[in-house]
Design brief:
- It is elongated and about 110 Å long.
- It is of the alpha+beta class.
- It has 11 helices and 9 strands.
- It folds into 2 domains: about 90 residues, no CATH class; about 230 residues, 2-Layer Sandwich (BirA Bifunctional Protein, domain 2).
Length: about 350
């Protein structure tokens, strides 16, 4: 039997087998058996060494024609099988496109996250850097470095959850102020930073208090920073958060880490200062604490307080969100009630 005859028989066998192929697995097995490395075509071509040059040329052309034709037929058969499978699926899985779809609820940013990010955007626009830190802090950075030595009576107001005698869940984010001052290069400019995050204090949980809440503390240290800079900064922040017609006032207060210290009030956004139930008829709402950074805090970080001074402030994110959105119970932030949270999706 000549090689031409063997090629023709292989062609006839391949055509018949293609017609019988019922799925892609069988089709692939056929392809391998015909034109694979150990297939029938390869076996036929191994006998070409006994042919003359002209015969080899002729058989080579026939083999190439067969290989190309077979590859095209395999692709056509594959496309036909896929189409048949698709038609069968469509016939068995009828879909009524006129039926209403099932709406999927899409989550959104938590209202506290939204409030924090809104404040961050305001401060970043004024040249502040956002600095985050660990929620587990040392007693040294949490208290001593912010002018609260051991046994200081002001610690009672910020009692927290201790892990060891020297490790605790931070009561404020002020520790990051001390850590940032240590590494800041004042020859390259003033330090402007905010530090947001969760803080913890041993407190009674009720409508306005929680053992866990969120703060955003800020600090500016430089050679020519004054109380006027503090007031101007807070005015910008409050007006951007609550409206351009809001006013602030500073009242003397006491914080161990600032001197002088102030409580900051904002004019009531419900009555405009005339007096109502929200502001308890005073026209003002207490919103945050601030003051000029105590020289002891600056010196403890290795910075010369005779050359540099600054201000610091602490904002409760829950407080801001409650005032902005009229929320009356702080516990709503933490209960995960979708009915509460979806009010702030937009």
């Amino acid at each position: 039997m000549t090689l031409q005859t063997e090629l023709e028989e292989l062609r006839q066998h391949a055509r018949a087998s293609l017609l019988k192929a019922t799925d892609e697995r069988v089709l692939n097995e056929l392809r391998v058996s015909v034109v694979g490395k150990k297939g029938a075509l390869t076996a036929i071509l191994k006998n070409m060494k006994e042919l003359t040059v002209d015969e080899k040329k002729e058989i080579g052309q026939l083999a190439n024609q067969f290989r190309d034709e077979f590859a095209r037929k395999v692709e056509e058969k594959k496309a036909a099988l896929e189409a048949a499978a698709m038609n069968a699926a469509l016939a068995s899985e009828t879909l009524d496109v006129t039926l209403p779809g099932t709406a999927r609820k899409i989550g959104t940013r938590h209202v506290l996250t939204q409030t924090q990010e809104e404040l961050e955007d305001i401060f970043i626009g004024m040249g502040y850097t956002v600095v985050e830190g660990n929620e587990v802090e040392t007693d040294y950075y949490n208290f001593e470095r912010v002018n609260l030595p051991k046994n200081h009576p002001a610690r009672d107001m910020q009692d927290s959850f201790y892990i060891t005698d020297e490790l605790l869940l931070r009561t404020h984010t002020s520790g990051m102020q001390a850590r940032t001052m240590e590494t800041h290069d004042f020859t390259k400019g003033d330090l402007r930073m905010i530090s947001p995050g969760a803080v913890y204090r041993r407190d009674t949980d009720d409508a306005t208090h929680s053992h866990q809440f969120h703060q955003l503390e800020g600090m500016v240290i430089g050679a020519h920073v004054s109380m006027a800079d503090l007031k101007g900064t807070l005015e910008v922040v409050i007006q951007k958060m609550f409206g351009a017609d809001r006013k602030i006032r500073l009242r003397p207060s006491y914080f161990p880490f600032t001197e002088p210290s102030v409580e900051v009030d904002v004019s009531c956004f419900k009555c405009g200062g005339a007096g109502c139930n929200v502001c308890k008829q005073t026209g003002w709402i207490e919103i945050l604490g601030a003051g000029m950074t105590h020289p002891n805090v600056i010196d403890a970080s290795g910075v010369d307080s005779r050359r540099y001074q600054g201000f610091a402030f602490g904002i409760g994110l829950e407080r801001i969100a409650m005032l902005k959105y009229g929320i009356t119970d702080i516990r709503g932030f933490y209960q995960g009630d979708v009915r509460f949270l979806e009010q702030f999706g937009k």
